[in-house]
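note to self — DONT lose this again. spent like an hour looking for the file last time. sequence + predicted structure for the chain T wanted, 209 res
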Amino acid sequence: MNAGTRAELAYEEVKRLVLSGAIAPGQRLDPVKLGAELSAGVTPVREALLRLAGERVVEMRKNTGFHLPVMTEVMLMDLYRWNFEVLRLAVASPTWKYSDDDTRRIPANAANDAASLFAAIAQKSARPEITAQIASANDRLMVARSAEAQVLGDRRSEIKTIISATQHPRSTLTGELRKYHSRRLSNARKLVTSIYKISDRSDNTSENL
C-alpha cells in the first residue's frame, strides 16, 4: 500500500470516528492515541486531522493541538441557518431543476435522508460552490441529525413533504425548507444537550483520544 492510499484510508477512518458522535464536542484529539485506536500511523492520522481542520470538522488550538469543536446552542443555530441559506440559493439558481427520477434515488435511511436530499438539491443548482457548502454542512450537522431522532422523533414526514415540494413552484419548496429549519432552531437547546448525551452513551469514547 503506497503512502497516498494510507493517507486516504486514515482520513476516511478518522473522519468516520469524529463524525460518529463517539467523541464529545470539545475533546482533544491526540494523533498518537487515534493512530493506536485505528491501527494507523501517526503521520497519516495527523495529516487527516489537518485536512479535517481545513474542512472545519475539527479545530486546531494553539498549544493544545486538535480538538472537536465545542457545540453550543448559538453555534448550532448558526449552522442550521447557514444550511437553509445555501439551500435557498440553490433553489433560486436559474439552472435549478428537479425530477421524479431524482426523488426515487433518495435513500430511506432516517439518519441520512436530509443529507442525501439536501445534497441532491444542491447538485441540481449546477453551482459547484453551493454543492461543496452543503456537503460541508452535512458533515458538520451529522451528529446533530442523530440527536434529532431523540428530540424530534420521526422526521420522515418532513423529508417526504420537502420531496413533494420539489415538484411545485420554488416558493413552495423554499417555504418547506424554512419550516424544516425553523423547527430545529426552536429546539436547538435540546439538540445540543442530546449531542453531548450521544457521546456519553458511546462505549468508544475515551479521554483525550
